[in-house]
Amino acid sequence: MKKQILIGLILGSSILTVNAQTWSGSTPGNIYYNQGYVGLGATPQNPLHIEYNLNNGSLLYGINTQSMGTDAKSYSPNLFLIHTRLDACLGLHAYVYRKSASTSWTGGTVRLSSAADGSWYSQDNRYNNLNWIDFIGNGEGIDLGSIDNNPAISIRGTQVGIGTTTPTLAKLQIVGNIWAGNESPNYTVHSSSKIEVFGTSQTETSIGFWQQGIASSLIGSKPGDMNFYLTNTYDGSNLGIASKSITLNPNGLVGIGTTSPTYKLDVCGTIRAKEVIVDLNGTCAPDFVFKSNYKLMDLKELENFVKTNQHLPEIASEKEMVENGVNMKDLQMKFLQKMEEMTLYIIEQNKKNELQSKEIELLKQEIELLKTK
Q: Of 175, 207, 224, which marks where a domain is finished?
């Protein structure tokens, strides 16, 4: 009996010694625990509890082979949770931080930072600091593309700002210039906010507007053409024939319905307006007709002129009007002159009529006297 008790104590002591020892070696084989917790460096408080008090402690997991790594057996809101007081290292060159004063990164970096004004996320795969993405939360929205509090894009609710951190005027607010094209201009536009579209001499430079199934239009210039066009004949590929366009040439001449204007406003078509005001610009109104020294053409002379020329004096003939067009300002002044001359003719004719009426009345009286004798 004593021997049996002694053997039992020896075996129990051996088992305790084995359980307390540190495993070592290359591949001891698989280890299974059906229940309970496992602790490394600490009394376990979770199924796997690892605690290492030295600053250089780390947890390395995964397989050192391309296209291999770690995965979760089931997915939940917290697949990988890092305590808010700690930093963690994922892999060899990828880091997740809560706080860090360093802004100099190399290799591929994933960085999470928290500060009084929000959180910072950056994914960096840069070479010589060329490629980077930053998201900065400031309590009001999200700023993108900044490490030094100078964001490139700011999102405030549903509004986006470029060049401004307070986009309040529209859904997209841009403070600064907008550039389209790959050509450099040879002039300077003195404006802090502008839209510029540049192309080579062989490319069409334009801004298009299209409403599906209804209308389309372009604003731009053609290759090798110094004119500027606004057209509604856009066929989906270019400015089209621009026959229904507005053309502005380098000399400041505007054409509507024509691509070769020769006047400040050259319209090939009908113009309708509620009111037109013409500046005489030095042209005299024909009130000189009413001056005492104006020589009015005799009616007989006027009759002969009309019979011979088939138009009024100082008025262009039909042939001249067809060939050269009509200067509306000059023509209106000539029409007014002829109306004033006609007024004088009527006044003169009225005087003659009154005189003849008096003479006729005297003749009537004389006839009546002769009848009474």
A: 175
